[in-house]
Structures are given as structure tokens and as C-alpha cells.
Amino acid sequence: MTRDDFNTGWSYRRKATPFQELGGAGDTPWTPVTLPHDALISAERSADVPGGHTNGYFPGGAYEYRKTFSAPVGDRGKLVYLEFDGVYRDAVVTVNGALAGRHAFGYSRFLVRIDPHLHFGADNDIRVACRTHLDSRWYAGCGIHRDVHLVVKEQAHLDLDGVRITTPDVDDDLAVVDITARVGNTGPVTTTLRLTAAVIDDDDGAAVAHGTSPITLLPGDADTARLRLLLDRPRRWSAETPTRYSARIELAHGDQVVDEEEIFFGVRTIQVDARRGLRVNGKPVKLRGACLHADNGPLGAAAIGRAEERKIELLKSAGFNAIRSSHHPASSALLEACDRLGMYVMDEAFDMWTQGKSDFDYSADFPQWWERDLEAMVAKDFNHPSVLFYSIGNEIPETGTADGGRWSRRLAEKLRALDGTRLVTNGINGFVSALDVVLDGMRQQREAGTPGGEDDAGVNGMMAAFNELIGQVVASPMVSERTEESFAALDVAGMNYSESRYALDRDLFPDRVIVGTESWPSVLDRTWALVREYPHVIGDFTWTGLDYLGETGIGLVRYADPAGPAPGFSTGYPGLTAYCGDLDLTGHRRPVSYYREIVFGLRTDPYLAVRRPQHHGRPIAVATPWAWSDVVSSWSWPGFEGEPAHVEVYADAEEIELLLDGASIGRATVGGERAFQADFEVTYRPGELVAIAYRDGAETGRTTLRSATAGMRLALTADRELLRAGTGDLAFVEIAVTDDAGVVQNARDADVRVTVSGAGVLQAFGSGAPVTEESFAANTHRTFDGRALAVIRPTAAGAIAVTTEAPGCEPAQLTFHVAAPVPDRLDDATDLQEIA
């Protein structure tokens, strides 16, 4: 068996039919690309595109990819597959003009067998067509946005995704490692094969368990071989200690190895109940969770391996121990990163079932495809220890109906039949489950002219009441009754924005285990207090961990303008991001992230943030519950000397003292406007601002902000200097405009130009700005609050030089070394026949 990276040698263009090309209308040039790739991220945005703010004002469209592939003569008679980890959306795969396969969903892995259509010993034309148009409530991108592999199998073989590993019996002394392998024989004769497996300690490479078994297959037959191995003194996998083992599997015919696999796995147990909560390896765990959309910021929807890994690194360093893939099955690269780095995963299947949320979304395909897509998700996830939960949906309107209860059971039981080792949940929003009743009531209220409707309160009043309104609806007896059947199908009741049910359900449904699958960041202190208080509430997932493209401005604070119209729910064009993440689009931590870290009990030092002084005293027109204060961790506000400023200090303390250049400005009690927060009204003057936290009169920590002074420099910080050639690596270069001492000039943004030479290219360039017309495909971008991010992709072994320039700044440079790809571990694997 061979499994090769198939990401290079592709090109793409806007899709053109032969009839369009015949008429000259579809003669679009092909552009070379390396996969994973998002065809939409470089498209021109405009205010009048269908979908508008939901997809960040990116246009829809149909695209096609092509690659010329030479099939070796020696592969004739073998099974040849293309493995797509994800194509958005409605993928159609042709080989030499013949339909080889199609797949409707944009996020699930699928296989296409291509050997019946190949010309062996000659070049072959492979094409993949896909499209996007009003089929998502957020930016979904378009294209082959995840990895592609070419897999070649012998007639006697291990089925793709056919090896599954569980640890059904674990204690401190011993673990039973159960290995099942689905083995196929497409050959013309009965064949006896031998399956051999060795468990390898991932730290030192030593074989710690092994076993072997024969298996006889008739022509055209497939069957399952099973090995039960004993692992002494197993080391457990958890988010805190992500210890892994690898199972090296060989399938041999006599002395010839005909197939082999290397599967990484972890030894861990999961238990949950309403009295003791969630336990991993017998230890209580509260999930400090982050919801994640699929995009990678400036990269768009492209799930390049290093970008997926960096996401998990950033979130883990910010205090999270769990992610929810919202609302799509996660990429294989993301799960691999969660396994290695230690991050619990809730992998979510769907955003809709039979009722659509967009004009042309997956709901039209759901009845025909849901089972295959759940099977694909489980096949991808099964051996990943990071995956604790399968979620069958998000805010599905049907969950408030009897038919939705039936669908809930069908999906949940399908998952249990495929994988009984994990917990099943569903992100149910009781407000959405009762939306028909809510909308009917609002309609009657408007018709009756009752005060309090949207027309009476305006946008500001409506948004201010949004959180309270949802809380009242989801805790109502109506929602309790309507959602009971859907919740009963689950192992854990996932609840979106439903903390008003936590105490209620302890009495109404005493055996119900709850996880907050989405929550408002603006009330995270209250939500986390409930998680800590109630054993039956096992965690909380904030919306969101990272900012994302589309749903523009739902977390952006906007101010009233007496001369203009009242702001709406969205920013309007050129809004780009939701701006509700703990981290911005580039991965830079926003102040809310540090506040959350304090609420989690993971940070002892206080944190300083300053509301933008240019808006001091202005009334806020829109601040949804997804919004945080309009603050920046900076004491550099040129032009506002002598003007009033509002300082927020976050701390787990009783009192905060604020000093400016050593002189005390005053003290404030923590817990005024918000728990864990002290507030100060001060007059801005450049200098050194210090916050000191006190408990019981004793200092518990301090933090400092210094004003930027003279000079403008470009400061470059790379995530690492050594890269690997191949299609999965990237370098992330953080760019900051600073003074001569290295203090960020957040109020002096600059247009930065990036030039890349050598063995790499500028893959993407952007900032965390939530509203901008700039393109991530350009090599010039304006900083936001003094910062930007350049993403470099290696193209070959060698050196990469990165140069940045900006008006008024000296050029700044970085150099990267690109090493050759790491060889496949199986090439150097221990001889399993000798072990056995």
C-alpha cells in the first residue's frame, strides 16, 4: 500500500462548461495552486453580493481544479483511490472525462476510486468541480480546502479506515488494546493472510505489546480480524498529558508484506453522570471550551496542517482545554494537532437537518446523505483520543417538534452503532426550537401595535434585551416540554445560550447532564460560576475562541451618530469578520481572552485595558451580548493628552490600585460593572501606568503599560525559523509597528509591504481589522492597532528571505531555513515479523 500527498501540481479557475468554452465565454486562464486551497478568499468582495454580511461580502461561484497524473504501469490491477479530506461543496470528480465520484457535503472526508478510469503508463486528466452560493450562514470558502491523498492498494489489503483501536479495559497496571482490522480480497483466489500488530511507545520507539493472527478470505470477500493486546503500566492520554502510542499494522501474504498502517492512539477512559460530572481517566474535568468556525483567517477556508496546529497552540496557551468544531466535522489535520498537543474535541456534524437556514444549503441533501456523512465523520475520528463528543447538530429548529425528536434518535443511534465509545450531544437552542411560537407572538404584537416591539424600542433597545429575552424563553415550560424528546436522545444535553436552564434542570431532569455548547462572552463570569457550582454542568464553549470571516460585526461595539442612521445588527459593507473571538483573526489575544483566563483561575497577575478615548462619552448604539468592551491593552493615545479615559483592570482580587509614573491615581473595588473587573476614570497623560492587585491588604500581582515614545520601527516575530518542505507547513510572522524601545504604536497604523524570496511564497497577509476592503492576497496591508500577520509557505528545501517595508520605517527582515520533508515513519519501522 502507498499513501502519497496529492496536493501539488494542481491549477484552478472559475468553472467553464465545454459549451461556454466553445463560444469563447468560458476561456478562463488556469492558475497554479498547492492544496489545501480556498478559491474564494482572493475573489473581489462587493456590497451587492448575495448573502452580504453573512459571508463577509465574498461572491459565490463555481470553480474547477485540474491535475495531470501519470499512472505507473505497475499499478494496473491494483485499487487506486483519491482521498479528499474536504471539498466545499457539491464536489464532482472526473478522471479522463468520466465521472468517478461526487460528494454533496463540504466538510466530510470521502473516497473516490479512480483505477477503472485510469490510463496506466500514460498521463491522466483529473478534475474536481465545486461551488458555493447562498449555502452557508458564515464564510465557507470554496474549493479543495483540505488535504488530498493518492492511495494505492493491493488486491489483498486493509480497507481504508479499516483499522480501529479501542482500550475497553484500563487500570494503572494493565490496558487491553483491542485492534480490529477490516481486510479485503478482490483477487480471484482464496488467500490466507497474516495480520501482525505492534504497539510502540511514541517517546522511545520501543515495542511494548504485539500480536498476530491469520485470516482466510474467499475471492471478493472481506472480513474483520481482531487482536487483543496487553499493555503494561499504560500511560494515559488527556489534555494535560497527551501521551500517545502508535500501532504498526502489517498484512502479509507469506513473506511478502502487502499492506501496512501506522495508527496513533491514546489510552483513556470517559465517564459522565449528573452527580459526578465528566471524568477523563477517572479524574473530574470541567471543559473550558472554545467554539471554532472552519476558516483560518487570512488563509480563508484552507485547512493547511500548520495553520490547524497553530490554532490549537494559541487556544491552549489562552487557557482553553476543549474545542467545538462549529458547525462542521473537523479536518483530519486539526484532530491530529489536538491529539499531539492535548485538546478535547466536540466534533459536530451538521448546522441543519431537513429545514434550511440558507437558500441552497445542505438541508436539500440531508435526507439522502446524512448517514454517509456520519459514517465518514466516525471513520475519520475513531482513532483520535482527543475526540470525546459527537454533536449531531447546531440550533436545529426541528428539535422543538416530535419529528425532530425522531430525527434526534435516528442520528444519535446511528452514531452509537458506529462508535459506542464516545458521548453524543446536540447544540440545542431552546429559543430556536420554539422560534415558530416566538415569531408568531412577535407578529401578533406588531399587528396589535403593542409597545415594546422592535419598532418601539429600536435596535439599541432590542439588542439590550436580547440576552434577557432568550433566557426567559429557553427556561419556559413550553421549551421544557418541546425539547424533552430531543434532549432524551442524547448522552449530554448541549445547550446554546441556555444558562437559565442550568439550575432549573437540576430539579426538572435530575439525571440530565448539561454542557454549554455556546455562550455569550459578555457574561462569561456568570456562566463559568454556574459551571463550577453544578456537577451536572460539565463545561462551557464560548462563541468564539477565534474571530472568523462572515457574520460581520456581531461582536463589534458601535456608537451612535446623530448625523447618520442608527446602526443595524451587522456592520454593512465592507464588514469582514464577526469580531467576537477571544483571539482576533490573526491569532492575537484580545483583552477578553485575559479576562477569561482570570475567570478560569489560570492567571494571577491583573490585566490592563483602556477604552478607546476617541469614543469617550459617546452613547453606544449596538453592543450585542457577543461584544466585549471596546478596549485595547495600550497606554499610547497621542492627541488625547489631557482628555478623559476609562481604564479597565481585570483581576481575581479584592481591590486594585492604579499608579501613573509612580503616583497613585486611586483605588477601586473589584466587581463593579463586571465581576473580576475594576474601573477607573482618569485623565490621559503619557507615561507608565501600573495596576496593583490586593487581597486581604496584601499585593497579589501587578502589571504595567508604557506609552510609546519617539521612533517607528517594524518588529517581526516568527513562530519558528525551521520549516519543512511539503504542503503542510507554514511560517506565521507577526508584524508590529513599535517605537524605538519596542512598545507597540497601536495608534500609528502603517501600510506594510511584504516581499518573499527564495524557497517560499507569501501565502496570505492581513490584520485583525473587522472592517476593511483590503485583500488577503495582496502584499500590502494596513496594520490594525499596530499589528498585522504575514503567512509564508515553503515551496522547496532551501532558504526563505522575508522583507517588510513601511513609510517612515527602516526595512525589517527575517530568514527561514526549509529542511527536506521528514520520511514516513513506516520506512524505518521495527520489523513486525521479528517481533511476532
From TrEMBL:
PANTHER family the UniProt entry points to: BETA-GALACTOSIDASE, BETA-MANNOSIDASE
Source organism of this protein record: Amycolatopsis vastitatis
Family annotation (InterPro entries): Beta-gal/glucu_dom_sf (IPR036156), DUF4982 (IPR032311), Galactose-bd-like_sf (IPR008979), GH (IPR017853), GH2_Domain-Containing (IPR051913), Glyco_hydro2_dom5 (IPR040605), Glyco_hydro_2 (IPR006101), Glyco_hydro_2_cat (IPR006103)
Protein name as catalogued: Glycoside hydrolase family 2
UniProt family annotation: Belongs to the glycosyl hydrolase 2 family.
Glycoside hydrolase family domain residues: 714-815
Location of the Glycoside hydrolase family 2 immunoglobulin-like beta-sandwich domain: 166-268
Domain Glycoside hydrolase family 2 catalytic: 278-433
Domain DUF4982: 642-700
Pfam families in alphabetical order: DUF4982, Glyco_hydro2_C5, Glyco_hydro_2, Glyco_hydro_2_C
Keyword terms: Glycosidase, Hydrolase
Entry-linked SUPFAM superfamilies: (Trans)glycosidases, beta-Galactosidase/glucuronidase domain, Galactose-binding domain-like
Transmembrane segments: none
GO terms, biological process: carbohydrate metabolic process
Domain of life according to the entry: Bacteria
GO molecular function, one term: hydrolase activity, hydrolyzing O-glycosyl compounds
